[in-house]
């Protein structure tokens, strides 16, 4: 049985695509006879506060579904203050160095990036000719930060760029969630080994269902992080509610602003449901006519994992984010596309969606496409050849 360590900034009981992605990877490896251990911070996302059950601890180790989980101390913060965010990352890096010093580390290590500093810490302290380091890149930082407006091209940006290049240089294999990520890495290091590792979900596809849509508004749903990158607050303000009702699930930085908007403007046909567990969310989502996947700005390298998850649920999608995600919606006929950032076009696209296009056959077609093309275990078996 081969030992393998996963280092990640996000892991259950935290919610969201990032934690689910790393859990699926860990459990998938374990089911195929790897002895898997995980290093992650004490749970704190997205609240920026360590969860009650873990407060006051420097380290918490547990055995969960045959996985060994080491949760390490972090100065938790979700503040917009860049200094506080930096301190949070440095604190987790400090905990990693402490763990590396006092514990035996397996010969194969998968490191999640971003955050860049966490990946950098692992690359610096775990470099060894006898150890294989694998970098799992889900977003291209600092490029994504620049496109989101969170970073500017200055000295700090150049430092982050150097850290990014160092990480790519000293890893043995780069796993990228998009073709754009792999192209970027190979533009810098043409001989670097890469592998396209999409964020495919790992759950049994439910039976598709359908409610009558002919005599009511189109029920559109958004589920996920209510953060700046998703732009849900702006979306709420820009939508034309003549023929739609928007339902929202999730939590994040924009939650209070969205709730206040709903209170002040009851004429907006918006329903906020709060946050649900993943299984409960799946049961809720399949009741809606269509789901929307927005990004405030097109982010190079980003492919929302919601595409693959919703496809497996058989839900038609409206994609509003540009980039590679847009190409996937078109290629696999998963729904509709509106020009990224163009809310007039978004409303125009919505107005043209007919209830006849949202029928049971369409849902079955989407789900069958997902089962055929977005299969987690087939992808995992291909990855084994690289480990």
Write out key terms for the chains shown:
8-stranded mixed β-sheet, Rossmann fold, alpha/beta, 14 helices, 6-stranded parallel β-sheet, 2 domains, 387 residues, single chain
How would you describe this protein?
By secondary structure, the chain is an alpha/beta fold. The protein folds into two domains: 2-201 and 375-384, Rossmann fold (3-Layer(aba) Sandwich), CATH 3.40.50; 218-373, Glycogen Phosphorylase B (Rossmann fold, 3-Layer(aba) Sandwich), CATH 3.40.50. 40% of the residues lie in helices and 19% in strands. It has helices at 17-31, 82-102, 116-126, 143-148, 155-169, 179-188, 232-238, 255-264, 278-285, 306-313, 323-331, 343-352, 360-373, 376-384; strands spanning 2-7, 34-41, 59-64, 67-72, 108-113, 132-137, 173-176, 194-196, 218-223, 244-249, 270-272, 290-294, 317-320, 335-337. Strands 3-4-2-1-5-6-7-8 form an eight-stranded mixed sheet, with helices on both faces. The model has no long low-confidence stretch (mean pLDDT 90). Residues 17-189 form the Glycosyltransferase subfamily 4-like N-terminal domain. Residues 217-372 form the Glycosyl transferase family domain. Keywords: Membrane, Transmembrane, Transmembrane helix. InterPro entries: Glyco_trans_1, Glyco_trans_4-like_N, Glycosyltransferase_grp1.
How is the topology of this model organized?
Blueprint: E1 2-7, H1 17-31, E2 34-41, E3 59-64, E4 67-72, H2 82-102, E5 108-113, H3 116-126, E6 132-137, H4 143-148, H5 155-169, E7 173-176, H6 179-188, E8 194-196, E9 218-223, H7 232-238, E10 244-249, H8 255-264, E11 270-272, H9 278-285, E12 290-294, H10 306-313, E13 317-320, H11 323-331, E14 335-337, H12 343-352, H13 360-373, H14 376-384
Parallel strand pairs: 1-2, 1-5, 2-4, 5-6, 6-7, 7-8, 9-10, 9-12, 10-11, 12-13, 13-14
Antiparallel strand pairs: 3-4
Helix pairs in contact: 2-3, 3-5, 7-8, 10-13
